[in-house]
Structures are given as C-alpha cells and as structure tokens.
Amino acid sequence: MRAATRLVASLLAALLAAPAAAGDLTGVWKGKFKCTLQDGQGKQKMSSRMVTSPEAGLSTLEVTHPDGPDTQALQIRIDNVLFAGFVLPVGPAVQGGVGAIVDCDPNQDPGVGYGELRTFRWRVTPGDVSGGISYRGMLVDDDAVIGTCRGSWRRISRADPGVSYCR
C-alpha cells in the first residue's frame, strides 16, 4: 500500500505542475456506496446504509479545491475520512473528467482503518449545482483485509465546505 501511496503522490505532484483548467467540483455531494471486504475468515459487506450521520443511510462527500476553483488539487472528506487527490478534464469543455484520491491516514479512518485508493469520473454543469461523481476503489489493511468499493454522489451545494489540508 505504501508503494501505491507514493505512486499517487508522485503522479499528483507531476500533474499539479500542468497548467490546465480542471473543472470545479467544490461543494457538498450526497450519495451511496457499497464495498466487499475479504479476510482469512470470509467476506463482509459494507454500504452507505451503515452511515448514521449527518444523514442516516446517505454518504456525504465534501470537496475543496485548495488552490482555487478550476484547479487540479482536491481535498475531500467522505463521511469524516480525509482524502487528497486531483482531477483531470477530459476533452475541450471543462464539464467532465477523471481523477484519483488516496486516504490521508489509514490509521485515523474512524470506520475501518484501511488504506484506500479510488479513481473516479466526474461531470458538472458550469455555473450550476448539478453534477455527479462515480468511483471505484480498492482498500488494503496490512496483509489482513482486501476489498473493493464503488459508489456515486450528486452535488447538492456549491458552497466550499472548507475541507482541511492533509497532504
């Protein structure tokens, strides 16, 4: 997992040097996810149905662009777990693209403590609240648990939630 974290960090540093408008994902998003985890004892399922706050059964994703709107760097909080990453635009219009995030500190994940790496697709309507993010990810817990996750969110607010910087 440490090698994957280093790889994402080096990719992030290289991509942040590129001067491209990346689209504005700033805001609060609501959605759902599901994960399948496996250890030596068998499989376990997790989902957004296990989320109890701030809204039972719904996952909350909060996005801040620390370098300003339309920049590539992201700070993200998903159900109180901090992530850092970047976005890339796809095509000439900055209305959609791809990105990647990695959790900031797997040991401080209040839910499960796994190291996570997620890739995602995004689409927004410039100047409007509408937008969507869908992701796939993998998680690892020091040779004890592996898992895969997928989920999607819809933006409900464009207000900057002020996600703290972690990388």
How does this model look, in words?
By secondary structure, the protein is mainly beta. It has a single domain, classed as Lipocalin. Helices cover 9% and strands 49% of the residues. The chain has 1 helix and 9 strands, in the order αβββββββββ. It has one helix spanning 2-16; strands at 27-39, 42-47, 59-64, 73-78, 81-89, 96-103, 115-124, 131-141, 145-157. Strands 1-3-4-5-6-7-8-9 form an 8-stranded antiparallel β-barrel. Strand 3 and strand 4 (73-78) form a beta hairpin. The protein starts with a helix and ends in a 10-residue tail after the last strand.
Summarize the entry for a quick read.
By secondary structure, the chain is mainly β.
The N- and C-terminal alpha carbons lie at a distance of 17 Å
Low-confidence stretches: 1-20
- The best one-word shape is globular
CATH architecture: Beta Barrel
The biggest beta sheet reads: 8 strands, antiparallel, barrel
Strand content: over 45%
Number of helices: 1
What structural keywords apply?
Lipocalin, mainly beta, about 170 residues, globular, about 10% helix, eight-stranded antiparallel β-barrel
SSE layout and pairing:
Layout: H1 2-16, E1 27-39, E2 42-47, E3 59-64, E4 73-78, E5 81-89, E6 96-103, E7 115-124, E8 131-141, E9 145-157
Antiparallel strand pairs: 1-2, 1-3, 1-9, 3-4, 4-5, 5-6, 6-7, 7-8, 8-9
